[in-house]
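Figure 6 in text form: structure in, sequence out.
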C-alpha cells in the first residue's frame, strides 16, 4: 500500500469541506480533499449534498416554478397580456442539471487553482492521523496527515412506517428529479425541505398535502412570521395538516394511502408520490476506523468544541456532521475557521449570527432571537415592524406581502433579532447579519442611509419603528 503525506486531509467536499481545503491551501499548507459523492449518471462530483442534491438544484427549480407561477398570476396586474403559458418540465430539469454541473465542475477548477490534491473515492480515518483512501478502481493507499478534517455531511432521516422505495416514496433528492408532475403529492414534514419542494410541485400543478407531526407551524421561526407564512402557503394551495402523525403507508392500484392520526382520530389521504422530509441525520458510515479517539454524541453527531476540535488530537469536524444548524453557510464558516486555526491564525465562528432563509414566496429570513425566545429569556425588548405594503419599491414590484420586524433590547438598544417575510428577504437579511456581527445598536441601523426606493428601506423603517420614529408608516 503506497503512502503519501499532507499537512491537512479533508474528508468530504461539500460546502464545509471544500472551502476548508481551499483556505488551508491558501495558508500555504499541503492539502488533499477526498470525496465519494456520485450522481445518478454514476459520475463523481464535488460539492456534496448542497451542490448536487440540495441548495442549488432546489433553488433552480424554485426559480423556474416561481417564474411560471408569476407569469400566470401576476402579469395581468402589470398590464402584460400573456396567453397559452406552458412549461416544459424536461427543459426545466435540464437547466437544473446544467447549473449543478457548472457548480460542481467549478470546484474541480478551484481545487486546481488553489493547489489542493483532489481525490475521488472513499476516505476513512485510521488511528494516528492516517487516512485510508480507496480510489474508484478499488486500490487503497494511506495518507499521513498532520491534521484531518471530517466533513462527511448528513443524510435524509427515514420514517420506519413509510420507508423509501426510490420511486413512489422518495427523499428530497428524489423529489428534485421527478420526470412528471405528480397529480397528488404527499409531503411528510412541514420543515424547510417540505415547504420548498412542496411549493415547487404545487406551482407546477400538483395537489400537495403536507403532513406535519407538530401542532405548531414552523416552530423555529418567529411565530408572527410563521402565521403570515402559513397564510401564503395556504393561498398557494398547499394543504398543510398540522398535528398529523403518520402511522402507515399502503400502496394500492389507485396510489399510496397515507394513514395518520390527528386530534380528531385516524385519517387517510391518497396520493401518487410521497416525499419524506422529516429532517436529516449526521453521516459517519464507514468514516471512522478503530481507535481513532473521535467520539459521537447520542444522536450520532461527531462531538466537537466551539472551535470544531474533536476528542482526538489534530482531528477536526465541521458542517452537518457536527452540532448546530444544518446549513451550507454555517459549514462553510466552520471550514474557513478550521483552515485558519490549523495554520496558527486567529479565527472563530459567531454562532449567534447564523442567518436562516426559507426560499418560499414570499421569502422568509431571520437572524438572532425570535420574540418567543426573548419572552422566555426575560430580557426586556422592544419591537418595530414595517409592512412591505408601505414600501414604494415593493408596490412597484407587485410584491407587497409580508413585513420586516426588528427586536431590540430595551436596556442598551442591542439588536437581538431580525425577522423578514417578504420579497428578497434572503438578500435583505445580510444587512442584519452584518449589523449583529458588528454589535450594532438599533440606533446604528436607524442612522444608516438606505437607498430609495429599495426593499432595504423596510428594515430601516422597522428599526425606526422600534422607537416609534418610523416615517412611512404610522407608529403604534
Ligand atoms: P455535505 O454537503 O453532505 O457533503 C459531505 C460530502 O462528504 C458528500 O459529498 C459525501 O459524499 C462526502 N463523504 C461523506 N463521507 C465520506 C467518506 N467517508 N469519504 C469520502 N467522502 C465522504 N442549506 C442552506 O444553507 N441553504 C439551502 O438553501 C439549503 N437547501 C437545501 C435543500 C435540500 C433539498 C437539502 C437536502 C439540503 C439543503 N441545505 C441547504 C442543507 C445543505 O445542503 C447542508 O447543510 C450542506 O450540504 C452541509 O454541508 P457539508 O459539507 O457538511 O455536507
Ligand atoms: P426540518 O428539521 O427543517 O423539518 C422537518 C419537519 O418534519 C419538522 O417540522 C418536524 O416536526 C417534522 N417531522 C418530523 N418527524 C415527523 C413525522 N414522523 N411525521 C410528520 N412530520 C414530522 O428538516 P428538513 O426539512 O428535512 O430539512 C433538513 C435540513 O436541511 C434542515 O436542517 C435544514 O436546515 C436544511 N435545509 C435548509 C434549507 C434552507 O436553508 N433554505 C432548505 C432545505 C433544507
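Output sequence:
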Amino acid at each position: 500500500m503506497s503512502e503519501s503525506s499532507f499537512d491537512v486531509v479533508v474528508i468530504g467536499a461539500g460546502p464545509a469541506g471544500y472551502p476548508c481545503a481551499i483556505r488551508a491551501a491558501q495558508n500555504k499548507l499541503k492539502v488533499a480533499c477526498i470525496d465519494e459523492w456520485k450522481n445518478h449518471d454514476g459520475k463523481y462530483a464535488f460539492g456534496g449534498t448542497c451542490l448536487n442534491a440540495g441548495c442549488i438544484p432546489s433553488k433552480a427549480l424554485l426559480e423556474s416554478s416561481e417564474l411560471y407561477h408569476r407569469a400566470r398570476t401576476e402579469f395581468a396586474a402589470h398590464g402584460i397580456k400573456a396567453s397559452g403559458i406552458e412549461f416544459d418540465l424536461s427543459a426545466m430539469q435540464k437547466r437544473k442539471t446544467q447549473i449543478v454541473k457548472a457548480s460542481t465542475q467549478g470546484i474541480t477548477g478551484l481545487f486546481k487553482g488553489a493547489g489542493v490534491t483532489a481525490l475521488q473515492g472513499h476516505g476513512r480515518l485510521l488511528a494516528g492521523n492516517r487516512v485510508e483512501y480507496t480510489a474508484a478502481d478499488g486500490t487503497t493507499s494511506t495518507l499521513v496527515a498532520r491534521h484531518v478534517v471530517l466533513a462527511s455531511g448528513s443524510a435524509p432521516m427515514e420514517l420506519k412506517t413509510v420507508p423509501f422505495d426510490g420511486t413512489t416514496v422518495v427523499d428530497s433528492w428524489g423529489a428534485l428529479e421527478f420526470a412528471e408532475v405528480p397529480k397528488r403529492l404527499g409531503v411528510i414534514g412541514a420543515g424547510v425541505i417540505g415547504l420548498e419542494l412542496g411549493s415547487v410541485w404545487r406551482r407546477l400543478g400538483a395537489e400537495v398535502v403536507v403532513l406535519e407531526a407538530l401542532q405548531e407551524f414552523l416552530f423555529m421561526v418567529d411565530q408572527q412570521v410563521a402565521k403570515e407564512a402559513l397564510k401564503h402557503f395556504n393561498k398557494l394551495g398547499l394543504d398543510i395538516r398540522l398535528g398529523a402523525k403518520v402511522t402507515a403507508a399502503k400502496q394500492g392500484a389507485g396510489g399510496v394511502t397515507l394513514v395518520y392520526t390527528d386530534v380528531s382520530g385516524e385519517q387517510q389521504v391518497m396520493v401518487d408520490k410521497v416525499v419524506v422530509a422529516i429532517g436529516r441525520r449526521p453521516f459517519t458510515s464507514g468514516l471512522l476506523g478503530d481507535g481513532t479517539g473521535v467520539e459521537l454524541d447520542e444522536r450520532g453527531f461527531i462531538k466537537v468544541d466551539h472551535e470544531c476540535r474533536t476528542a482526538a488530537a489534530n482531528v477536526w469536524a465541521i458542517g452537518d456532521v457536527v452540532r448546530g444548524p444544518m446549513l451550507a453557510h454555517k459549514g462553510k464558516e466552520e471550514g474557513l475557521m478550521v483552515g485558519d486555526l490549523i495554520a496558527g491564525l486567529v479565527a472563530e465562528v459567531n454562532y449567534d449570527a447564523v442567518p436562516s432563509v426559507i426560499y418560499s414566496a414570499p421569502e422568509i429570513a431571520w437572524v438572532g432571537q425570535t420574540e418567543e425566545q426573548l419572552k422566555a429569556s426575560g430580557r426586556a425588548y422592544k419591537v418595530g415592524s414595517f409592512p412591505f405594503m408601505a414600501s414604494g419599491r415593493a408596490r412597484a414590484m407587485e410584491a407587497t406581502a409580508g413585513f420586516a420586524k426588528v427586536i431590540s433590547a430595551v436596556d442598551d438598544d442591542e439588536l437581538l433579532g431580525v425577522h423578514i417575510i417578504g420579497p428578497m428577504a434572503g438578500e435583505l437579511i445580510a444587512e442584519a447579519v452584518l449589523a449583529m456581527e458588528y454589535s450594532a445598536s438599533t440606533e446604528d441601523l436607524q442612522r444608516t442611509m438606505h437607498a430609495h426606493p429599495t426593499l432595504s428601506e423596510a428594515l430601516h423603517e422597522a428599526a425606526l419603528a422600534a422607537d416609534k420614529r418610523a416615517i412611512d408608516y404610522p407608529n403604534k
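Caption detail: The mean pLDDT is 97.
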